């Protein structure tokens, strides 16, 4: 049974994201003094004393044209409340009840979800004035809290408990080695490449805010989903939509820097990263920088050319991108390059199929016997050099971890082994052991000399 859901709603800049971060126990949502930082709804696992629930951070509720960006943000907030078991309505104690607060209260009364009203920033005597004023909204007794300082937690607990406390079914812990575990996949790329549109097409709903404006997405939003694969089975996927990454020199705004850091954290946490390119613009230097970062972090990488349905000179474009990747990503040959259309959905099944295959290679453990038989053949076919006339002896290899596959080679004088020979071993391993185009780690280690001292 899934946990009950709490949706935090309110006008801009009342502290919704600060409260969300406190409830989930992490700085997941971006927080800034200016209003309108949050745009998409972000979900997380919340905990309040011994209550466990799903919590949704929503965009500030504004009375705007539905076609405008604030209007599209408001639609996401309305959808969150419709899905929630309880709406937590936040107002600002320092500013008191505003006309927009009254409008939100009227809207919430018309919804089916029960409402708990909390007065945030209620530190000191001023908070009590704001709390008393909130009675006028007619949504029950307001709770005074401070999301920033953690005050009012017990009162919030008592107010939410009737809507959250119910018999929970223990869910089995996720096993990293299980093939049935969700595939953690992050979709990254430059602004306006179509990342949110692609996520919406996968989910079959307008879950992410999209539009012609570049850089709409600010937070990295993780979404659990089941992919109906071509073999007829439902495969679990955790999709992460991220903010667009521009060249660092062009990033001057603090919020954009925070968004970029959030995207990089999402890359660190992913198993497979899809780098989405805009086929109408081709491959740019910034795309190669992002791809290089993904490989450096040891994540499996898929390149997807989006807007393929409107691309001109498709064949030469595809071949040009592949050639540029072969040259620009010399450390990892054969990265899959696929074509998709986020508008029509064409190519999505192939993209997810490739991602699951890459995850399997990325998680693979090679048996000790197979690994050392390959190692003996590789060293015999191409022995290591002998710098200064002294032979480098490579004795054996062992795999120390997976995700990505990581190996240690033991031998003498390994500190003098040239990088070219290490690349030879890695390329030979990928080919002969069929590890595929995933990042591999290989370190060299010499046995301790008992006479060193």
TrEMBL record:
Record: residues binding GTP 1: 10-17, 57-61, 120-123
InterPro entries membership: AAA+_ATPase, G_ENGA, GTP-bd, GTPase_Der, KH_dom-like, KH_dom-like_a/b, P-loop_NTPase, Small_GTP-bd
Keyword Glycosyltransferase: no
SMART domains named among the record's database cross-references: AAA
Gene Ontology terms, MF aspect: hydrolase activity
Binding site for GTP 2: 189-196, 241-245, 306-309
UniProt keyword annotations, A-Z: GTP-binding, Hydrolase, Nucleotide-binding, Repeat, Ribosome biogenesis
Described function: GTPase that plays an essential role in the late steps of ribosome biogenesis.
HAMAP family, A to Z: GTPase_Der
Family the entry assigns: Belongs to the TRAFAC class TrmE-Era-EngA-EngB-Septin-like GTPase superfamily. EngA (Der) GTPase family.
Oligomeric form and interacting partners: Associates with the 50S ribosomal subunit.
Full protein name: GTPase Der
Gene: der
